[in-house]
Every structure is written in C-alpha cells, then in structure tokens.
Amino acid sequence: MFQDLNLCYDNSFRREKPTGADTMLLYQGDAVLGRVEAGALRLPLRSELPPSMLALPCRPAFQLGDQSYFVGDAEACAPDREGMGFVPSREFRNLGPKEAVFAAAVGESLHRWYGSTRFCGRCGQSMEDSKTERARVCPACGLTLYPKICPAVIVAVTDKDRLLLTKYQGRDFRRFALVAGFHEIGESLEDTVRREVWEETGLRVKNLRYYKSQPWVFTDSLLMGFWCELEGSDRITLQKSELSEAGWYRREEIPSDYSGISLTGEMIELFRQGKAHAPRPRSDRPEESPSALGPIRV
What we know:
The chain is of the alpha+beta class. The protein contains four helices and 17 strands.
C-alpha cells in the first residue's frame, strides 16, 4: 500500500520555521506544487521555490526519515520556474516514489483541514493554531478542533472460491472495488460491515474477520479491512445510488492490474492468489503503547 515505506513517519507537533533543505507541500485545491519526471513526483525544497512563493505562510507537517515537510496554501500563486506546476492528487495512483506520494497525500489532508477551520463553527470567530498541539482553537469560546479522520470499512465478501466485486456509481475510478462505507455513530465496526453489505447489495454475511487498516488521507479516512462470508442467498439487490454494478467473480476471473496503492487492491489480490485467509505475520515484541514506541515506521 502507498504508506508502506521503510522510513520513520513522525507527526509530532512542532513550531519551527522551514529551512532551505525542507520539503514544501504547497496546494491549489487538490493539486500539489511539483513536477512529474518519468513517472516520479518531485516535490520542491524551499530553496527551489520561485521567489514569489518564499513569503507564503506555512506550518510544520511531519517528518519522513530525516526530511522535514511543511504545508501551505498557494491558491493565489503561479509557479514561475520551468517544469514546475500543480499535480492533481487523482494522478498519484500512477506515480512514485511512495514517499513523495504519501507525503503529498497526507499534506493535502492537512491542507483541507486548515482551510475548513478558519472560523469557529460555534460562534463564528476566527480560529487560531494551538500553541501546544496540532489543533485549531477559538479564542472567543474555546472550541478546539483536531484534524479530521473518518472511520470506514472495506469488506471482502467471499463465497468459497468467489469474491463479491463492485464498481462505484458516478466516480472517475472505474476499476473493481469491494463493498465500502463510513462508520455511523453508535455502531460497532462489525455492525458497519453488516449494514454496508446489506444496504449496497442486499446480502447477509457471517464469520467476520478483521484484516488490517490503512490511512486513506485522500478522503480523510481511516480504512479498516474485513473478510467475511456469505450467509444465505447470493442474489444481489444493487443500491444504484452507490454502485453501478456488483457481481460474483471466481478467482480466475479477477483481473490482476491493481497498482498496490490501496487496501482494496491488496485484499482483492490476496483473494485472487488464494491467500485471503493466510494469517498475518505477528511481531515478536509485546504490545507497546504509541507513546512508548515514538515515531512510527511506515
């Protein structure tokens, strides 16, 4: 998946200013400043920015390995360096290297959040950055907001050697997908799995098994993958507002043209290879708290 990197990802709160050697994540809408060279996304260092962009306000975002990244808004700017432009996030699926795609995607999520929290939703006053943590604080009423993360499930429904595959309605992404949906207030994740499968396809499922998670920052989501088995009739009743099609596919019928960027693609490929129920590797270390572990290796 796109976040599987051999680097330490450290998103702890910082207040420092960028240096010339730091990477800048500057956005116009859903597009990041950079250039594409031979299928590789190149993000600019601050020392490589056009003079017109050096004064743009920016905030510390995170570190990948020894490299620091800063995020900022460049809506009113036009790049004046040859070959530099704004690369839409919809192109990230076909680009490398992984660390640049991961950084640009996470930065875009932060950029959206900062842009949507300029004013307090309770009293309408201008929000300010917290001085102690990554948060937005209203100086008038004290409302505190944290980066937006929406929990969602990805569900691989199996029936022996068949897998339920779907295609989204009204989206640019036209490859096969799995049943997916957002967690609702008051539900367990298992309830979300059962509800989403029933709503989208009219199918009942059993024997739910959690697989793994993925931060899908393109939609500010945390995806949680589940395997489950068909219970009862295999007749599909399509929810046409969400899906354009859904059907049962045997292993040999499933295409293998997935980029490996997503949890959905990984789970489909595992089933195609007959590895859907192989146990996941376990760490030989006892469980530790995130605070004890420090920065996360991704």
